[in-house]
Write a structure and sequence with these properties.
Elements lengths: L1 H12 L3 E4 L2 E4 L2 E3 L1 E5 L8 H14 L3 E5 L3 E2 L2 E2 L13 H15 L2 E5 L9 H15 L5 E4 L14 H14 L5 E2 L7 H11 L14 H19 L6 E2 L15 H14 L3 E4 L23 H4 L2 H7 L13
Parallel strand pairs: 4-5, 4-12, 5-8, 8-9, 9-10, 11-12
Antiparallel strand pairs: 1-2, 2-3, 6-7
């Protein structure tokens, strides 16, 4: 008679991501998703990952973004091969990471991207099927079907292809949340994300310049105004804002990150990410942060300004939201 009780406890304790209007929910409660980039995490030793996940919780983060196809600095940690089939040991390591996050109440963004590692629609479909099938029992993750799908290079995924990918996810797992990162540049463009592709929320990638932190609130409000006019309102999720080490002549400081985060919250966004990556202006691109964690874990690679931002969390603007 004790087995059903144990199973019930396991179900209750599982971390479940959902959506209510323009808000995300975690275990049924409206929750602002405050997260961090963890792109090459599958290349990190498991002990590094455990320590980073514990630090995530300590600083008040509740989600992370990891890539399912990642080959940077000569280290291919992709979970699938170029045909979209599972690739070990990284495929099972992703499942382990999702499980570790589930135990800690953390949400996971699993991102796919069209390109040299996933070159065709058919390989893309197989990758989607493999991931959804293997991770179906976990409710603490969503899938970004195609990173920056609107960029007209090898990353490009058409709306018709995106719909096919989305429909395959929903066929296998109707409640799984899906998005496709890119920047809706007009109300018509946004309509195609919402109705043609049928994403559950939008994940715009905005500008990376000194003006960006001051523009986020207004851009967010514009998206919601368009959605009201279109008749479907979903969360706006900033999973990849500006970062340090990227823009020549501009290194955002802690106050820039805070301003951008507060602008997202004031505009009504559902989530925001402390984006981070390699340093473009150093010979070895170090610190590489989330792009390469083989030698040092993420929180050991964050620099002074990023740590200053961490020590300011949670900001006062989050005081009326779950974090």
């Amino acid at each position: 008679m004790f087995l059903p009780i144990l199973l019930l406890c396991a179900i209750v304790e599982a971390t479940t991501l959902g959506i209510q209007g323009k808000n995300f929910t975690v275990n049924g409660k409206p929750t602002f998703l405050l997260g961090i980039s963890y792109y090459g995490g599958l290349g990190a030793p498991r002990q590094f990952i455990r320590q980073d996940l514990d630090d995530l919780k300590r600083y008040g983060f509740n989600w992370l973004r990891i890539w399912a196809v990642w080959n940077v600095f000569g280290d291919d940690v992709s979970t699938v091969d170029k045909n979209g089939n599972p690739r070990e040991p990284y495929f099972r390591k992703l499942e382990w990471l999702v499980k570790e996050c589930d135990k800690r109440g953390l949400i996971v963004d699993i991102t796919l991207a069209r390109g040299t590692l996933l070159p065709t629609q058919q390989s893309h479909l197989r990758a989607v099927r493999a991931l959804v099938s293997a991770l179906k029992t976990y409710r603490n993750w969503y899938i970004d079907l195609a990173n920056e799908r609107n960029v007209r290079d090898e990353r490009f995924v058409s709306f018709s292809e995106l719909k096919e990918l989305r429909d395959e996810v929903k066929r296998m797992d109707p409640q799984r949340l899906v998005t496709a990162s890119g920047t809706p540049g007009s109300k018509e463009d946004l309509r195609r994300y919402l109705f043609d592709a049928g994403v559950d929320f939008i994940s715009p990638h905005l500008a990376r310049n000194p003006q960006a932190p001051r523009e986020t609130e207004g851009i967010t409000r514009r998206y919601y105004s368009w959605m009201e006019e279109l008749g479907r309102v979903v969360p706006v999720h900033y999973q990849e804002p500006f970062r340090r080490g990227y823009t020549p002549g501009w290194e955002p400081v802690a106050d820039d990150f805070l301003l951008d985060l507060r602008g997202a919250i004031k505009g009504g966004a559902g989530g925001w990410c402390l984006h981070n990556g390699s340093q473009r202006d150093t010979p070895d691109n170090k610190p590489r942060r989330s792009f390469d964690m083989r030698e040092r874990r993420l929180f050991e690679q964050l620099d002074e300004e990023e740590r200053k931002f961490l020590n300011s969390l949670p900001p006062k603007s989050l005081s009326n939201k779950e974090n």
